[in-house]
Design goal:
179 residues; 2 helices; 34% strand; 11 strands; mainly beta; 6-stranded antiparallel β-sheet; single chain; 3-stranded antiparallel β-sheet
């Protein structure tokens, strides 16, 4: 006889037993990010492309469009079955970017980057393309940031050479779609 155990139950058991379950993220309309894992969300950031670019550079403070943090420092909520909708601040969190007003509208035809920073387990990150109807999770091979703070530039991974964006972004998205 086979016994099926729901994924959420396994995640909960691993959390109770002290095992780390890396944070995972799925993206759908909104965009809304469906998170899961054993960690606690201590920040969620969305970055947009700099002027004249089509693809966001990870961790570029000048490109940070929206950021939330827990109201109580590093005591964020468990990411198990958590939903974060862009521009909507979840209970127990505060919006830190932009400091006043609503999150900027995400334009179609551009690639954005998100980073869910967690404690107790590794975070989740990824690139997504905003098409006309919904976000599309993609890989952007060879794009790295030149630094983690300060003057961050897009560079080709493993080198200090500038990253060259694809000429045909729609074709690039088709070729690098996740799932």
């Amino acid at each position: 006889m086979r016994v099926l155990i729901p994924v959420a139950a396994i995640s909960l058991l691993l959390t109770i037993n002290g095992c780390e379950v890396s944070t995972s993220a799925r993206i759908h309309n909104g965009p809304t990010y469906s998170l899961d894992g054993s960690g606690r969300l201590v920040s969620f950031n969305v970055y947009g492309p700099q002027l004249g670019h089509k693809i966001a550079t990870p961790n570029d403070a000048k490109s940070l469009m929206w950021s939330i943090n827990p109201v109580t420092g590093f005591q964020g909520a468990l990411v198990t079955r958590m939903e974060v909708k862009y521009g909507n601040v979840p209970k127990g969190y505060v919006q830190t970017v932009p400091t006043g007003g609503d999150a900027p509208v995400l334009s179609s035809g551009l690639v954005y980057y998100f980073f869910a920073e967690t404690t107790g387990a590794s975070g989740a990150e990824g690139f997504f393309y905003m098409d006309k109807t919904s976000p599309v999770l993609i890989n952007v091979p060879d794009l790295c940031e030149s630094a983690f703070v300060g003057d961050v530039k897009p560079v080709k991974c493993g080198t200090k050479e500038p990253y060259t964006e694809p000429k045909d972004l729609e074709q690039f998205v088709k070729e690098h779609r996740v799932g």
